[in-house]
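Data deposition worksheet. Section B asks for the primary sequence of the deposited chain exactly as it was used as input, without tags or linkers unless they were present during the calculation. Section C holds the resulting structure in token form. Section D is free text for depositor observations; keep each observation to a single sentence. Incomplete worksheets are returned to the depositor.
Section A, Depositor: J.P.
Section B:
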Amino acid sequence: MLYSTTTVPVRGHARPLLQRELHHRLDVLARAHRVPGAQLVLDTGSELVSVHVGTADAATGAPFTADTAVPLGSLTKPYTAALVLLLAEDGDLDLDDRVADHLSELRESGEVTIRQLLSHTSGLPTGVDSDAAARTTAARYLSAVGAAGDALFPPGSDFSYSNAGYVAAGRLVETVTGMSWHEAVDALLLESLGTVPAFLGKAAPARPVAAGHALNTATGRVRPVRQNLAPLEAPAGALQASAVDLHALGLALADRSEALPPAVAAAMRRPEAAAHPGALADGWGLGAALYRQDGRLWCGHDGNAQGTSCHLRVDPDSGLVVAFTGNAGAATALWRDLAEDLERTIGVRVPAMVAPTGPDHPVALPECAGTYANGGLRYHVALEPEGSPTLSVDGDLPIPLLCYPDLSVELVDPGTGRREPGGRFHRDPATGAIDRMQISGRTARRVAA
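Section C:
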């Protein structure tokens, strides 16, 4: 694997030792995790350092630069949320409007509001996979996911991460502005952030872009992978950007730039009462995930496209911004290791992921077995002969679960045995029976024992 490494002080005078250390650690971790290329921007308020290493495309050997745009996946969603909030700030819509009053294709969604779309508290299912989405129109897609019978819970009462909610938010932008989502996000937001637009599915971007990569376990080689986002899903995941670009968004969220009005930034990082995302984060605002760390409430978001992993963390109290992009799926593990290094380097613990709650010892929970549904997705919880539960999604290989007395669960990597927060089961308050589960932020209703 060809690696080139560069350190670029973006503004001010960063300590040479800090620059060299971050540069070295990013290079070492990228090699260790078999990630072809990565970018990191660290802004402490007094020092700003940008470092990047490696190659943008393992097949061509194109170098990673500070300007290389990486498919952001779900880190597109804060941009779409900010766009909707800018329209609300201008009086073009009200966040508590019913979505159905603007989008006739969601007329069966009842009282779902724009605010609930942005905070994932609408009760809409996540939506069909990208291959199926590519075979339909946005209107038909939303009509299907908005069917009253598929609602996961009453609007505004719980949390379920939903790509469909952001497809709807993008359609809302198009309806209000008369522009496509691509045109609107560029003209109304990216330009003010100083971000040169690059989108999945759009030909001839005006800047270098990185490929996503996966490790071929049979050959041990890292290969580029194809992005398969459907065009209608663009508002949920089509943006490509660099860590420098994510840093610009982070500055706006921390009220350190004029790219977003203070009221918009505040709405994005203000916790919504019903938003309990479980393993994804500690809370959610209007478009931003929220993380509690050492008495502070950080904001940001994570994003994964095919073979990429991108992360933004912002501490509004201190103004600290950390932005990271990596062009392989393994970059998620790289990001977590890097966050630990940052704690040692700058003395600040960056919340890379939700910390395990550390409940009591695992317990048997045989009543959790059954099938749960989120739209067309099926989650099947089965019991092994000795009674331990496993989870499979749409027939994939089962993953071991660990259940705890508070109904929280951990997912166990079958290969490494590593445990990670998974979510929790929920009981019906009236009957006491388990009627829902939330895994990786997505809620599913029980449909069969």
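Section D:
The first strand starts at residue 5 and ends at 11.
Residues 94-181 form one domain.
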